[in-house]
User: Fold these one by one.
Assistant:
Number 1:
Amino acid sequence: MTKTNGGFEPVFCTVVPPHVLDRLARHEDPALARPARRTLERDAYQRTHRRLTTVLGAPAVAPPAEAAPGTPHRTIYDARHGTDLPGHQVRGEGEEPGTDATVNRAYAGLGATFEMYLRAFGRRSIDGDGLPLDATVHFDRDYDNAFWNGEQMVFGDGDGEVFLDFTIPVDVIGHELTHGVTQHTANLTYFGQPGALNESLSDVFGSLIKQYTLGQTAAEADWLIGAGLLAPRVTGRALRSMKEPGTAYDDDVLGKDPQPATMAGYVHTGRDNGGVHINSGIPNHAFYLVASALGGHAWERAGQIWYDVLTGGKLKQDALFADFATLTAEAAGERYGQGEELRAVQKSWEQVGVRAA
């Protein structure tokens, strides 16, 4: 297992931004406020636990001897609405699906993520060395989030009022597992622009996993993150839109999607680790523009350029948007020469207001 940038510092990463839960927690309707407050409290506990584990150290997890190269090793656990992890094992690798649709979706989503990384980029699991993929479902009660805690995936069932089951969108599963890929490669600092890049990379590869699973081209994809996650009462399509940041939802309860598409709308805030879930809309949009300009399957050229940067060893932990843009231009030139790929990358960053060297 290769460590880059001084070693791993896994962080606690959730798919629903704190600013969304904060707004819900202040709602006058207890049916909306209570689950959000409970989720915020649980997230705060998990975040503290993650920091302690990082400081004290956790035992390394090695791939099991029976896991053949090129195949995943998945284990799904059921928390039974408790909070002890990982919970009770309910499905192992190769076992037939049961009657619990949530378990089956989690199992399939882990497999889809493994498959895309392996087939598109030659990467063996999250760490590149066959790391087993563990996931816990039915975490807590009315838990409005899904997270990667540095070691495994965890899914809530949602509250049924605002959020549905978090295993429904495969891109949410891919998003969270990609935090593990970043953890094992560039290890981007989870604050400010490096943190927004961290979140954006998870959105990019989460979207690519969805597109790969559905066999979609860039033109056919919806470029939404978390489509199908919002309950029917919510006026919105998803958590985020890479095609049109700021348009994913506009709801009387959730408010309006705050993501900017360009640097002109960059949000300066101390909340959400310096706006990591908000300003990620800018590099998200840049990737969408590259993929759309190149056409075809987005994982084949645009995705390859982004993957080269993420895993190439040049991306520093404290990289800013301009640093990342410069590296994508370098990667495009190194892999494809001075052709349309390089021009698409350069033009796309210019369109979102980021100046690459």
Note: The longest strand covers residues 74-78.
Number 2:
Amino acid sequence: MSLPKTDSAVLAARWSEGVLLKRDVFSTVERGRFKSDTGEVDAVLRRLDEVPWWSFVLARHLFARERKALTRAKGLNAGPDLLWAGDRALVRGFINGVALHLAKPHGNVAYFRSAKQMMRRLHRAGITHNDLAKEQNWLVGHDGHCYVTDFQLAACFSRRSRLFRIAAYEDLRHLLKHKRSYAPEALTPKERKILARKSLFARVWLMTGKKVYRAITRGIFNFTDREGGGRRLVNDAPVLMDMIRKNPAVRDAAIVAFADRRSGVGLYAFVEAEQPALEAQLQGELASAKGPKPPEHIQVVHALPRDASGRPRTELLQLVAMNQIDLIEPMITSDSDRAFLKDILDSRKNLRDRFNFEADLNLPSH
């Protein structure tokens, strides 16, 4: 499904291809640079030219909803600004920040205060987001403020109808669910009551519509979106982890997903061991085993970055795999993290789909 000539001409003249962020049956999303009227800026492109014919009608509908919502939200400082929109492609501004599931703002009360203010601005403009259960749709900006992205399910209302109030209530309830996960001590008694009381629409949706939605997206469309990782991260990664850990030279491993231009979703395995030659050995073992498709990349590292409880910091590894290197700096919490990242970045594998986003990463030299 090719782009119209007008869309292609604008992108050819003004868009610089960068890092692929996501590709599924509804759109392709990538980060790059766009020549706006005021100069070249970091931006995000959503395009429909690689959407299969059987999902195009729904993809076009979701695209139109996002275009309309972003047009109305311009200047609200709630999400990305719409820089340009064509018939089957749009470019929105890039927000300098990290998704909620990667940033993990534990105890950050100011962030959730900002989130509530941001939501009020959206709702006063008659916009409900309608897809805020996903942590990847919430961003923790480098300025500490809250932003939301991915407006494909958003709705624009001309008046505060009953349907608007229900949708706005559900937006707020999902915000409070995330606040409960990361700053539960800051919940007020009123917020706890809201969390305990789903709207009638939400209760009916959970009992009926959500089951149909899952059957269609996971069954017919073969679409799973756990942290943007798809079915391979959900189904294949645990099996591959068990197989990798059986090698006696492996101390530990972590697998994350990244968007791949050829396969849609790729897997990147970081293996904690002392032998760099182990990478080829593991690829051979996984390829010969009668199991899931091996990861596209396997990288042996001396030590995985870990949090205070000793678990691998997959949020850092995710950004390395996705080549979003410039977003790592605010998430580095120790000198050991910084030294590790210098080592891992020097030898990372996913170099085919990258862009020059690492200039501001202040890492030590060898």
Note: Confidence is low (pLDDT under 50) at residues 357-361.
Number 3:
Amino acid sequence: MKIAILTLPLHTNYGGLLQAYALQSALERMGYEVSVLDKIRKPKVQIPFSVSVKRLIMKFILRKNVAPIGQLEDYKRRKKRNTNTWKFADKYIHRHELDNLGSIKEDDYDVFVVGSDQIWRREYILNNFKCVEDAFLGFAKTWNVKRIAYAPSFGHDVWDYTPEETVSIRALLRLFDYLSVREESGVELCMRELGLTTKHVADPTMLLTAEDYKVLIKNTSKSSGNLLCYVLDMTEEKQQEINAILKEYNLKPFTVNANVEAEWDSDKVSVQPPVEQWLRGFMDADLVITDSFHACVFSIIFNKKFIVMGNSHRGTARINFLLRTFGSEPSSERLAKLNELRVEGLIFLSNALCQR
């Protein structure tokens, strides 16, 4: 069977890249052919012939500075920012590039797996897809294909879809053969707002082991310290907290990310470090300080102690659920729970794919 994974577009987000890689890997180990649906990176900019001629004359004959076209300039900035993360995606993820989901044909795939990450968070859908229904396979609603939701997240525990969108989402999810979500709050939202029963399963990154990830980082250089600070939304208050923690622990701090999101609308463009180096940070760390969901996940996978800084902007429900499930201290019980959830997740996928 040919399987398509529908997730958020792949860019500089380490967690987004690794959850797509992990879900793809788990499905391929079961013997399936897998593609991850992703946006075309370079925009197709159509310039009228007369404008093209004028720009060429200005640039090469009159030797004038010609301002770059907006979309192409944006692409150049993204290409620089994503140099390393796109390299990881091209090397390890089988991407199916497309302009929009409407270009997919019914016979392209036998199965669509929606997940994971916050693909069911309304604001993220509207930023990345043509309409809300796309994230729930609205483009394929009349097709004879298998539909599986594996660990999608709403991002928070509040339902913010409009009444009209809710009706559409309910109808589309009733077409799914197997439904799961990533958090208990998602289970509650599906029941309360949609009248649908589902279950929570582990984030796709947890379907692989620490040993699986160590294969990816075997050729990376050792981290420059042993206290990993990975904070997505730095504030003065968070910096003060970090400074207090540094005084308490006799550890050397290091970071593994550029401030790319803070620079999104500025003229400055930093290059996000390689995914492999980000992973190596968790292997080398004795302690992790973060406000990121997936940094908490990888701290758990590598069985490291971590300290979480609240980040309501990105949703606290998912991190709270993670802490209730695993705690923040390394232990054999944590690893046993992780293995239990890994097996449950793989069984869920196997059953969903094998049963008719």
Note: The chain is about 45% helix and 10% strand.
